[in-house]
Amino acid sequence: MAVTPAAKLDAQKLRADFAVFDELVNGKPVAYLDSASSTQKPRQVLDAMREFYEHSYANVHRGVYTLAERATAGYEGAREKVRGYINAPSSREVIFTRSATEALNLIAYAWGLDNLGPGDVVVITELEHHANFVPWQFIAKKTGAEFAHIPIDDLGELQLDALDEIAARGNVKVVANNLVSNTLGTINPVEKLAAWAHDQGAIMVVDAAQAAPHKKIDVQALGCDFLAFSSHKLCGPSGAGALWGKRELLEKMQPFNFGGEMIRSVSLERTSWNELPYKFEAGTPAIAEAFGFGAALDYVAEVGLDAIEAHEHELVVQTMDALAEIDGIRIFGPPADRRTGIVSFELENVHPHDVAQILNWENVAVRAGHHCTQPLMTRLGVAATTRASFYLYSLPEDVDRLVAGLHKVKDTFGA
Amino acid sequence: MSELDQQLYREVILDHYKNPRGHGALDPADAHAEGQNPLCGDEVSIFVRFGDDGDTIDDISFEGRGCAISQAATSMLTEMVKGRKASEVAVLPKDELLDEIGIPLTPIRLKCAILGLGVLKVALHRAKGTPLPEEWRGLENELKLNED
């Protein structure tokens, strides 16, 4: 089979799609290095939402008039795009949510409450985002299940040799892990974990919020049971996310929210649930956001995930090499070839908030904080880190400006 | 960089950050609390000793880790409230501290600046039953594993 080398993306050219880069401060656009938190939006996405509002707006799944038909067709079209993006077997298994967080809460409540109890073990990892950590902690407490974690090593990679000890603690029923760590960029061995989970008779829940924008996802190849991701981290609007789950599991679960759309029939005596996926979509959904989500998936697919991954890798290598030259910088996480476009670091004697504040003077936008991963911060022995993260519009010059800004931080603090 | 930007890290802030006043734990303490800024995980612990009248703040110290603004502001706070009545400090308007800090703060950095004041009020509340600031209410209602 002939191997076609991944087409290189032209970030400079793609930036023409993002009006935000026309906003200049002191003659310079923002060096936006916070895409792991949320990405900027291309006009193709904004156009899709505007066109929907201007030409096709109506509620979905209700009216029989033309506008309602258009709205429903577009909304269901977006669902089909999500299905294709993650290679799910059926779009019935794709549920629109408000966010990846809501998708993970849906699983924890609608699956967890009915399937966990004393003697069972819920397994999460030390580098989980709070969104895939706290819901499970809460449901474990609620059901009497044990709450266990897979530890990480000093490079921020999962220590899978701890699995036997965890299995000995009871009936492992659920394993929840992010495919990519939002703080360190670590790419986690989800296929291996899924296989182990299934050996234990457990389900595998994957938080792909940080993976979906940056690498190809195939839920069937991963072998997981549920997978959640969001629109706003891959050029789409906020307020939209997706949950994929295996049909057999979704069919057995009770609804998460109740109201319109999710019922088949209601009477004073009894109520029955709508078919998948509507059983889990109570109330009027974020319709325009779904249009935008679909347009974003098209945009990212058009640029190409292989090209995005290769582009981010170059920027990560550039950043890690440049930071290694600065005295007092400690980089967290694995080597460049085992992470996506994220570099978390600390500068000795200067708190990340202060680092980020001074970088902002140079119009360099980074994230400073615990990144919603406080257990990971505890493991690393820090209160917070500074994080630079990239996307398809990021430039090598952005990294140069980050490095120049860090020298300014050192000057200001005499560090 | 604007002039406003530069004021943020004016000398007095960096001095308090690098050489915090009232730093360390008091053991025993008459009042103690610790708190975090949920935004960044920054932590401050505050220790207070009262005078013979049971109300005057005779001694106060803090420990913590966080940004220059949160640590410098807490350091300044210890100097500001030492010798004052607990009942009065418990309702101290945050503007009094902000005037002392004297730098322009965005709403997000404001939270850093008043972290120490909030934790002090929690400590006084626990020791004296003085009112809690709104943003610190509901603390007891937490999720704890491994307890009956």
Plain-language structure description:
The complex is a heterodimer of chains A (415) and B (148). Chain A has two domains: 11-39 and 304-413, Aspartate Aminotransferase, domain 1; 47-301, Type I PLP-dependent aspartate aminotransferase-like (Major domain) (Aspartate Aminotransferase, domain 2, 3-Layer(aba) Sandwich). Helix content of chain A is 39%, strand content 17%. Chain A has helices spanning 11-14, 43-56, 66-85, 100-115, 134-143, 163-167, 190-199, 219-222, 247-252, 287-303, 305-324, 352-361, 374-380, 396-413; strands at 24-25, 28-29, 31-32, 94-97, 120-125, 146-150, 171-178, 203-207, 226-230, 241-245, 263-266, 271-273, 329-332, 342-347, 364-365, 367-369, 385-389. A seven-stranded mixed beta sheet of chain A has the order 4-10-9-8-7-5-6, with helices on both faces. Chain A has a four-stranded antiparallel beta sheet with strand order 13-14-17-16, with helices on one face. In chain A, strands 1-2 form a two-stranded antiparallel sheet. Chain A is globular. Chain B is of the alpha+beta class and 148 residues long. Chain B has one domain (3-127): Sufe protein. Chain: A (Alpha-Beta Complex). Chain B has helices at residues 3-8, 11-18, 68-81, 86-89, 94-101, 107-113, 115-128; strands spanning 31-37, 42-50, 57-65. Chain B has a three-stranded antiparallel beta sheet, covered by helices on one side. In chain B, helix 2 crosses helix 3 and helix 3 (68-81) crosses helix 5. Chain B is globular. The model of chain B has no long low-confidence stretch (mean pLDDT 91). The A-B interface holds A 134, 137-138, 140-141, 147, 350-354, 357-358, 361-362, 368-370, 374, 377, 383-384, 412-414 and B 1-2, 5, 8-9, 14, 39-43, 65-71, 109, 112, 143-145.
